[in-house]
Design a protein that fits this description.
The protein is α+β, with helices and mostly antiparallel strands. 34% of the residues lie in helices and 44% in strands. The chain has a single domain, classed as Roll (Nuclear Transport Factor 2, Chain: A). Pfam families: SnoaL_2.
Amino acid sequence: MSQHEAAHRLGEQFHAFLTAGDWAGIRTLLTDDVTWTLPGDNTVSGTARGADGVVERAKKIASYGLRFELLHILVSRENMALSLHNTAQRDDVKLDEYLSTVCRLRDGRIASIETYLSDVPGMNAFFV
């Protein structure tokens, strides 16, 4: 399997585990020292550190009932990104955002994640 095929498969696995709530599965895709940085000023913003911290962040985000629609898996020479459309509703507050989750890979696993959002104010209003 080529490097870009392996990166694409890693993206498929990450999305599948996230939508299934398979936290142990996500953990297998991460390096021990992984980080995940999200913009904004809310309960899921900032940088989560370590595999356990990243899994806890994924659990917290999923606990808000998000639908993680995969639009594309993008690969570079050495890394991978997920293009997603996330939606959810909590009472009268709606989340409707497009994002790219850029994953830097090391030794076939995710070593860092940085998420880019289309609507940071909307994210701040939803994740209180």
